[in-house]
Write a structure and sequence with these properties.
The complex is a heterodimer. Chain A is of the alpha/beta class. Helices cover 31% and strands 28% of the residues of chain A. In chain A, strands 1-11-10-4-9-8-7 form a seven-stranded mixed sheet, with helices on both faces. Chain A has a five-stranded antiparallel sheet with strand order 15-12-14-13-16, covered by helices on one side. In chain A, helix 3 crosses helix 4, helix 3 runs parallel beside helix 5 and helix 8 crosses helix 10. The radius of gyration of chain A is 22 Å and the shape is globular. Chain B is mainly alpha-helical. Chain B has one domain. Chain B is built from eleven helices and no strands. In chain B, helix 2 crosses helix 6, helix 4 packs antiparallel against helix 6 and helix 7 packs antiparallel against helix 10. The mean pLDDT of chain B is 93. The chains are: A alpha/beta, B mainly alpha. Chains A and B meet through helix 3 of A and helix 1 and helix 5 of B.
Chain lengths: 324, 256
Amino acid sequence: MLTIPYTSDRHPILSASGLRKSYSNQIALNGVDVEARAGEVVGLLGPNGAGKTTFASIVAGLVKPDGGSVLVEGVDALRHPHAVRPFIGFAPQTTGVYEVLTVKENLTFFGELAGIRAGKLRQRVADVQSALLLEGLSSRPCQQLSGGERRRVHTALALMARPRLLLLDEPTVGADIPTRTALLDVIKQLAGEGSAVLYSTHYLPELEILDAFVVLLDHGSVIARGRVEELVTRHGTAALELRFDGAAPEIAIEGLPVLHQGESLRIVTSEAACVAVKVFEALGQEAHRLRSMDIIHPSLESVFLTLTGRRYEPEEDRQRVTAP
Amino acid sequence: MSLRRSFVISRNELRVLRRDPSPLIFVLAVPVLVTYILRGGVGAILEVLGYHGAPGADFAVPAQIVTFIFFIPAFIGTSFIREHVWATWDRLRASSATSAEILIGKVVPMCALGLCQLAIVFSVGLTLGLHVRGSTLGVALVAAALVLCVGTLGLAVTSVFTTMGQINAFGNVGSVALAGLGGALMPLAVLPPWVHHIAPATPQYWAMSGFNSLILNGGKVSAAFLPVAVLAAFAAGFSLIALWRLRFADAKHSWA
């Protein structure tokens, strides 16, 4: 496993170590360590099935791990789950709101459950509504909202208690652009106020926008961790991507890995422009089916590719790698 | 354990109930209507059974209460299924509320609904000629035990059934069938002998037995003791089933 050292004098709000969990014969987590410090956004990144939801569910107290430990604000969350819940705001992957209740009633309920009272509760409801663009929807039942609006309410519920640790499991799935923008702004603001945010996603660009400390999961194990730019600098590689009419042809470029997937080919190289010439030679008669050719710059996606040998596919990969 | 958090959950249940008041109509209005319609015919049956001059409300009021109050367990089960369908269940579990606080918060409003039903149907019954010949305290004790039994049955139903279809089947078919077997649809005396053997296995029988002893037969408070004890035993049994089977992490669905 690759680790880029990260030092901070801010105290850890979440310390999870050695977390293991299996479902039947399927390993969901295989000794995962994650730490989130005050003011830090930790991006839990990986394709579906990587173990992100299981990790978030364990920290939230919904799933019991087979082994390992979880400390939240120094309290053992596995032994004393109710003691740590006041510190945690959790938005699960599936949108969860009381459909027949209004936005305000939903927010009020979770605020009251968190122990916020009277005047402070009204103020908090107003603040959260404002932050997530819900002000004009306050008196609307959730069942009358659009998918993006409901997603904003869903996330807003997790913010009501002004949590020290915010767990967001795929918060932007199904979200429209205004929702995504508002959400990322709120997360930055919350981190700026000293909360730790654990942000599980399979959308790579969001973690780049948040400048998150990334924990890259694959098949239940951490395969890399570090700040986005550090990981990209160290492991991100450029590539040449070609798209075809119909199935991508079988070609080999000497000394370079070629990834085939459906109608596209990706050739991993730091000298994409030079390789393009070789590609045309290799394509031969198939060149007429070429629709587009793009130079892919180093990014988290290429980090994943470098570390796993597989293209990053949120819905898990179907590609195969042609050995150089 | 925080009663405040249970209260917050109960208040939320009432908000949801306000938006979808069908349980209120079913549990509060329908038994009043049925009592009003049946009281004449039931009065004739009571006459045949030797209760000369007894108004039909003396049997119809407790009978409709006992029949319709046993729909409440299905409403309790539905309220849990709804949390799963709306995906709020995990949010609730991840909140500061403990399991006990969640259960109390969700069951108490439905038990309160049962108490409201008792108050309303008995009150309307008084205007229709209902006359409690025996101990009023005894009637109150049977009513309290009945509500306890219904609340715990709701938890047992929640723990055993996993889909809305199962709970609907239990609510619709089970409640009416058990009401019939327990002597709440018709006096047990006019039912076939085989029903007499089965009837004591139902909580409806013991509730009707208690109410009939106190209302029709003029029993003293002591006449309530056995029915109350048996209803309490049923409640204990339902609680044990709930403790044994209820798993907060288990999934529930609207339909299979």
